[in-house]
Amino acid sequence: MPNNVTVTETENVADLFGSKVFNAGVMRKRLPKHIYASLLKTMKEDLPLEENVAEVVANAMKDWALELGATHFTHWFHPMTGVTAEKHDAFISPTEDGKIIMEFSGKELIKGEPDASSFPSGGLRATFEARGYTAWDPTSYAFLKGTTLYIPTVFCSYSGEVLDKKTPLLRSMEALDTHATRILKLFGKDVKKVTTTIGAEQEYFLIERDMFKKRKDLILTGRTLFGAKSPKGQEMETHYFGKIRGRVANYMAELDRELWSLGIASKTRHNEVAPAQHELAPIFTNTNVATDNNQLIMEFMQRVAYRHDLACLLHEKPFEGVNGSGKHNNFSMSTNTGENLLEPGPKPAENKQFLLFLCATIEAVYKYSEMLRINIANAGNDHRLGANEAPPAIVSIFLGEQLTAALKSIETGKPVKEAKDLVMELGVTTLPKFIIDATDRNRTSPFAFTGNKFEFRMLGSNQSIAGPNITLNTIVADVLADYADVLEKADDFDTALNALLQKSVKENKNIVFNGNNYSEEWVEEAARRGLPNLKNTPEALAEFTSEKNIKLFARHNIFTPAEMNSRYEIHLEEYSKTINIEALTMLNLAKREISPAVFTYTKEVLDTLVAKKAIGAAIDDSAEATLAERLSKLSGELIKAIDFLDETLAGVENAKNPQAEADYFCAKVLPAMEALRTVADSLEEIVAEKYWPFPTYEDILFYV
Ligand code: ADP
Ligand code: MG
After folding, report:
1. pTM for this structure?
2. Cα 77 to averaged position of ligand 2 atoms, centre (Å)
3. pLDDT tier at 236 (50, 70, 90 boundaries)?
4. How many domains does the structure of the chain reveal?
5. Is 469 in the pocket of ligand 1 (CB under 6 A)?
6. Quick check: is 584 in a domain?
């Protein structure tokens, strides 16, 4: 069994759950009644936090953390890099007698001042204006990790520009709340708050740490830059939902317990399609918390792997030739009264409120599909999208038969026959009968309606879910705002609603596609429908600051135009830097590991050839001669490919701006990398195993 297990198998899961979280239960116990009530109001109804409340909460939080062994606290935030950031401060405060007391004030809880200069700002802030602030986000609970109290915060610059992913996410949730409650009021509902909910399914690879350590490409870039196909890949289809090997099962058990202790409801675990690939899904929660939780899930996947002598790969495409990893962002909206606004109920075609929220989401996705595409664009995800393992780069919506029929009925005004419950008959009397779902699954759709939520499946495994959800919330809020404007003015609500829904269905049905998104025909059909097909990251990012997008985010006070521009630049830079590092790593490996290995092996073959030749014509030396010839030819090509990549990389300097640079990396550097890889992989197939400098795909993907 691994060392360092912080929780034991015998522990009661119910007691363990949330034991390291300063959650509502702990607050109720430890805070005076009026303080608790006031904080709850802040959390549940977005009311501002009062200073005296913060003081009392800080003290209770500190006492709780100290009892659990904490020595430090940190403001934990989400800078624009997509990972999280933290700086720890000890609770200690010196006293006159040369000792210390453990202190934590309301001010320290509410506000932190990290030096902001080394976080990317995309030109928003010059280095000399280094001051940045973090501010407590009371809607996400503080928690304990190791001996540090983590306080979820937002991050902004001295002059108020937003430097993180959390602030715009919270703003977008508020925008959706504002307009969704307007709509619900028209339906006669007394709803105080609408929250978006997210369940993010996380895919990952787990490999042996020894293998990981031997591959510089995995260490530096997260993916293998070389590697011939393994003789066995995923073609037997035995790994998906397959038996979980013991080592991995131990890992998963410990991971679950770590996550449970942090109040993260890790629910589902299973093997995925590719060998060594797995998935974890938590139970959904509000988007803000789900975003924090997903970052912690990714962090603990890696930490726990380390303890088990494993390495967790979160890259979107760690291995060529087998599936990459994604993240499924299950999205819905729910009220403070517990109603899921995307729940169709037994008669969806008659459920006008549901149809309104459905149509609003469809319209939003149709109008702003580019922005959704842009948000999930990065160098890693470019390897997956459209590669017959993940949705294509074209955004479309799967609704299934029943809802498609319901929309048809809105469009034509003709009533639809509600589907009867279908009972599954298995022909075995002892087996229980059950009602089957109205629609089958469609695994190829990028944005699928799945029962009572939409599943946005284009996200890369490594990405923060904040970006896509900022967009999702904002675009749905935008359409709901339009709907509310129309309906609030209407003389007759029902008539206006019917007309509005009919118009929406007619104008937006083009985005609905229930067929196979992996097929070539769909790409052609989508082009006929005029759906955007932004094939790679630079192409997608070029649309980031289109007038339409700038106006959208400004309209809802999510991003100023300057903040949009900064994000555009940061994403471009991130793309270019990623590929630059990958290209340099390839060159390093090719020159310093692969070439020498090939030369040594070639020499051995040549030595044998020479030895045989010395004996004379009686000995057949054709094998050595042929092999030496092949090796020499390929090593010649290898050196050429190395030089070509070197030259191509040098050409980056001529790019005039960040967009041109990203375009160049995509159009020129990537193909040069691909060419080098092809030669190296051919060599891997003929060079003796003992000479090959790093583990091969079969070594890595199949372990016990
Ligand atoms: P799948 O078959 O895609 O694995 P599941 O039923 O397991 O689907 O659900 C996947 C995810 O969707 C889980 O994280 C689940 O909690 C989440 N989910 C379920 N209902 C909602 C909802 N109303 N809002 C957001 N996410 C939800
Ligand atoms: Mg799913």
Report:
1. 0.94
2. 28
3. confident
4. 3
5. no
6. yes
